[in-house]
Design a protein that fits this description.
This protein is an alpha+beta fold and 170 residues long. Strands 3, 4, 5, 6, 7, 8 and 9 form a seven-stranded mixed sheet that branches. A two-stranded antiparallel ribbon has the order 1-2. It is 23% helix and 28% strand. The chain has four helices and nine strands, in the order ββααββββαβαββ. The chain is globular and about 45 Å long.
């Protein structure tokens, strides 16, 4: 199961990160300077965390969220899908935007773009979200995350989205 290197939506470009991107994102000391095209608030701490999960050559890894040539955040899966207890391939998604880019529908659009690719591969997607993060809960609802699986060990709500035409975990 391979996803496109770059996913395009109506307003956004979602390219996979490269080794050079990872090095720049985790460069806490600024040795390499700010990257051209990065929003002043990028990378956020969550983007640096996502960089620790990046795997070279894995199309299910982290991506930029870019609008009009400016990096506004990141989105990606926490690794390639594994078979869930019902045999359906499943993986987790995470996303985030710089504060200035929130409220414009970019997270919803980026997630829908990524989900369309996962749907084509027959992969069910789950997400974990803080119960107080109303904006992220709205994004998940708009993107079809209908199953509430409870909370994880950190107290985050775990939600899942069925594969269109597929089934939820039993």
């Amino acid at each position: 199961m391979t996803l496109p290197t770059t996913i395009l939506t109506e307003r956004l470009t979602l390219p996979l990160w490269t080794q050079a991107d990872i090095e720049a994102i985790v460069d806490q000391q600024g040795r390499n300077g700010r990257q051209q095209g990065w929003h002043p608030q990028f990378p956020r701490e969550d983007d640096r965390d996502a960089a620790t999960m990046w795997v070279e050559g894995d199309s299910w890894s982290s991506r930029y969220i870019i609008r009009n040539g400016t990096v506004l955040g990141s989105i990606g899966f926490f690794g390639p899908p594994d078979a869930a207890s019902d045999g359906t391939p499943e993986t987790e998604v995470g996303y985030g935007l710089v504060e200035e880019a929130r409220g414009w529908g970019f997270a919803t659009e980026a997630l829908k773009g990524l989900l369309a690719c996962a749907d084509a591969e027959g992969v069910r997607i789950r997400a974990s979200v803080e119960p107080t993060n109303a904006a992220s809960l709205r994004v998940l609802a708009k993107c079809g995350f209908t199953e509430l699986r409870g909370a994880d060990e950190d107290g985050h709500l775990v939600m899942a989205r069925p594969v269109p035409g597929g089934r939820m975990e039993e």
